[in-house]
Amino acid sequence: MKLSPLTQLLIGIALAGLLAMTRGQHFATLNLPSASWAVFFLAGVLLTPRWVFPALFLEASLLDFAAVQWAGVSDWCLSPAYWLLIPAYGSLWLGGRLYAGWQRDRLSSLAVLGVCVALSALVCYVFSGGGFLYFSGRYPEPSLAMLGERIAVYYPRYLASLALYVGMASIFYIGARSWLGAQRQFEVKS
Asked: What pLDDT does 137 receive?
């Protein structure tokens, strides 16, 4: 899938906006599920410049720090483990990059998409949730059993939000491709 620079710019702006609107409900008045994981995955799929990943991470971090400083949000998640979000979100971005290389305009690509989403989300959760469990200092005696319990409780919720946004993006992508294909056929016949 080759997108024009203008299309990538518009998608990048939309993803940055979605991140800002849903990042922990710090600033938004809508109660949307967090799109953070989906933003990093979709950026990996749709945006080719490598600087996009650090730019989105910087945006997410600034939103978190601003929320704690000025919006009265708890600083519970701000700990030394916070920096494990870099490999966590990186796994989503990499999962998106891998899918972008494997994606074909065929129905079978949806199965590949599902596997890429689920596996990159699991790796992301191990870094983010596992990192928080072991390195935040909030849990005196972390264990693999605790990590397993946390994965069982929290991973499905995060995966559901990720799947919701990626599914909506997939529907939009399929619709846009169909509409553009119909437009081209109409122009050829004219």
From this structure: 86
CB burial class (10 A; 0-12, 13-18, 19+) of residue 52?
Answer: buried
Question: 15, 67 in Cβ contact below 8 A?
Answer: no
Domain that holds residue 119: 5-189
In this predicted model, what pLDDT tens digit does every residue of 73-131 receive, in sequence order?
Answer: 776 678 889 999 999 999 999 999 999 999 888 888 899 999 999 999 999 999 999 99
User: What global pTM score does this model have?
Assistant: 0.90
The CA-based dihedral angle spanning residues 124, 129, 135, 141, taken in that order and rounded to the nearest 10 degrees: -140
DSSP secondary structure string for all residues of the chain: ----HHHHHHHHHHHHHHHHHHSTTSS-SS-PPP-HHHHHHHHHHH---TTHHHHHHHHHHHHHHHHHHHS----TT-SGGGGGHHHHHHHHHHHHHHHHHH--SSTTHHHHHHHHHHHHHHHHHIIIIIHHHHHSSS-SS--HHHHHHHHHHHHHHHHHHHHHHHHHHHHHHHHHHHHHHHHHHHHHH-
Q: Name which residue leads in pLDDT, 169 or 75.
A: 169
Split into its structural domains, the chain has a count of 1
